[in-house]
Give the backbone structure.
Amino acid sequence: LAVDIMESATAFDGFDGQPLYSASHTWRTSDQTPGDPSPAGDTSPQSNLITAVSAGTDYAGSGAVLDDFYDAVEKMNAFTDDKGTAIHSGEGRYIIVYNNKKADLDRYLNLAFNPDAVAGDDTNRDGWRFKVKLISSPHFVSVAGTSDFDWYLFRLIPGQQPPLVIQERQGLQSEAWRDPNVRMNRWQYTIRYGFGWTNWWQTIKVNKS
């Protein structure tokens, strides 16, 4: 479900009527008073998408990964709220979510950000200072018959809701009964969750495909 929310370009729209990753995020209502019009002049669209420097090709080194990472951070730092004020102060920790079916992407992300990775012939270690956590997933869809090698940067900010939200709507409930037809005890378990997204300004999609 989380991957569906991240990759969907049409469904799972948020409070601004856009999917999580969009070039058309706007403040059409106030973030302070929901329902009130946003101040004039601060409703221009903002994008949390960037195109990788070498889009359409595999990474050839961790330096290219870091170039895209710096571009994503720079774009994130430029986001403004409905008052025109910069949102990010530089606080927070970074997480990168990516498809582990793409060997080159997995290799160079780890070389760029994982101090435990074996250096080999790649010695670019500038990314270590950011203490980025890498999360790989096999659930991203394939594009044109090959594994998707886009990746997603998140910045988790203290005191703010993370971009992806899981809401427990009903706690775990169990029900047991005796089935007289087969002379067996049966148990049924029920739990309900809601999934969605909130703060688009805390994440960037790097289009590498």
In short: The CA atoms of residues 59 and 105 lie 6 Å apart.
